[in-house]
Design brief:
CATH class of the largest domain in chain B: Mainly Alpha
Strand order of the largest sheet of chain A: 1-2-4-3
Radius of gyration of chain A: 23 Å
Number of strands of chain B: 4
Shape of chain A: elongated
Number of helices of chain A: 11
Distance between the termini of chain B: 33 Å
Order of helices and strands of chain B: HEHHEEHEH
Oligomer: heterodimer
Number of strands of chain A: 4
Helix content of chain A: over 70%
Radius of gyration of chain B: 17 Å
Strand content of chain A: 5-15%
CATH topology of the largest domain in chain B: Arc Repressor Mutant, subunit A
Chain lengths: 295, 118
């Protein structure tokens, strides 16, 4: 049972770090560090949850989880109801997570293929981007082996040349740094539990951090101001027609991005960051080691 | 590959320009200045039909091809996806920022629905 305790402690550490990340403001100043910490934390949470279920179920064998699982079939009748239920739950959870990730990958790939085909048929190539003739302002990156940067005619009309360059640099940063691969696992998790407010919030946080990474890259090439004013134009243009009350949201993601570009936070890494990294890495190491040992 | 994509586009432009479904021969004739083989045009049309952007129907011994939707409907479909207005498909793209009023979004949806009814 002490091994299950380790798994639970690892999971608790991951939850604590995740809650800290959700509440912290320094993440906007260091989006890349925050993203990496998020990835390790969520991985730890998943591994330790499965580990705890399997650990409880296989506790009578006093062995690592994987070796015990391999030896399980001939002796499965020795487990009582609770232990076998925990094993089944652990395996089902692991399988469900993997299958869900694969299904999401497939549906995303299909949507992208369709989108790429339609772009090929109706968009025209212009300097540095594909242009779709439509008055609504939008700019985005279609990820893939050959990523496409797309702007609408409306976006080109909305932005000055310097702003458009900054926006294109932002999209190229998404494409080059494969940001869609960072976001995909989190979005797949959210799709498992679409009703979960917490997961939705985590996803929104991850998406915002990814945008901030791309903002930083574009700002290094073209300066901060063009990007900030481009965001401002998009923001003002989009909310102009929304009914009263929709604007009441105090701090939309776009406003947070504009603010950090205009007033770059100067504070360094928070002192708690190395500690949190150490904590969650130890938790992940402990949790995953218990899958193999004791032999 | 880029050449094939460019051909698909040229063939769609021919089909969109016609009020009636067109035979392979007609499309081939319309693209005569490109010096394409007849079979090339046929292959491109078959591929487009397989991808559901072109509909085909039999007329006697030949197939007639027509676009499955107008250019405006395809643009509307792209924009709806780009604006994350289509259910949970939004994860296919990474967007910079979007700016759309609710009126514009409604207009896009209507453009697509009109296409699906006809």
């Amino acid at each position: 049972m002490i091994l299950v305790g380790h798994q639970l402690a690892a999971g608790a550490a991951a939850v604590a770090v995740a809650l800290w990340l959700l509440r912290s403001r320094w993440t906007h100043a260091h989006p890349r560090a925050a993203l990496i910490l998020w990835q390790i934390t969520v991985l730890t949470l998943v591994v330790s949850t499965i580990g705890a279920l399997l650990g409880f179920g296989l506790a009578p064998y006093q062995r690592g989880l994987v070796p015990a699982l391999f030896d399980l079939p001939p002796v499965i009748h020795e487990l009582d109801l609770w232990h076998s239920a925990a094993v089944v739950a652990g395996l089902a959870l692991a399988g469900w997570l993997v299958v869900n990730q694969l299904l999401c990958l497939r549906s995303t790939a299909r949507a992208r293929a369709r989108h790429r085909l339609l772009l090929q048929l109706v968009a025209r190539q212009d300097t540095g981007a594909l242009v779709v003739d439509h008055p609504i302002a939008v700019a985005y990156c279609l990820p893939g082996r050959n990523p496409r940067i797309v702007v609408s005619a409306g976006a080109r009309r909305l932005l000055t040349e310097a702003e458009l360059d900054a926006v294109l640099a932002h999209e190229r940063a998404h494409a080059r740094e494969r940001h869609h691969l960072v976001v995909a696992p989190f979005q797949a998790l959210r799709r498992l539990l679409p009703g979960s407010a917490l997961l939705t919030r985590v996803c929104a946080t991850i998406e915002l951090l990814v945008e901030m990474c791309a903002d930083d890259k574009a700002a290094r090439q073209h300066g901060r101001e063009p990007l900030a004013s481009a965001l401002e134009r998009f923001h003002a243009n989009g909310t102009a027609g929304t009914p009263a009350g929709a604007l009441a949201v105090a701090d939309t993601p776009v406003q947070a991005r504009i603010r950090r570009l205009r007033e770059p936070d100067r504070f360094g890494f928070p002192p708690a960051l190395p500690l949190a990294c150490l904590l969650v890495l130890t938790a992940l190491a402990t949790s995953s080691t218990l899958f193999a040992i004791p032999l | 590959m880029a050449r094939l994509g460019e051909l698909e586009r040229a063939v769609m432009d021919v089909l969109w320009a016609r009020p009636e479904p067109a035979s392979v021969r007609a499309v081939h004739a319309a693209l005569a200045d490109r010096g394409l083989a007849y079979t090339t045009v046929m292959t491109v049309l078959t591929r487009l039909a397989a991808k559901n952007v072109v509909r085909r129907e039999r007329a006697g011994r030949a197939w007639l091809y027509a676009p499955a939707a107008t250019r405006e409907e395809y643009v509307a479909e792209l924009m709806l996806e780009a604006l994350e207005l289509t259910g949970d498909r939004g994860s296919a793209l990474v967007r910079f920022a979007q700016s759309v009023t609710s009126d514009e979004a409604d207009a896009l949806r209507q453009a697509l629905e009109r296409g699906e009814k006809t």
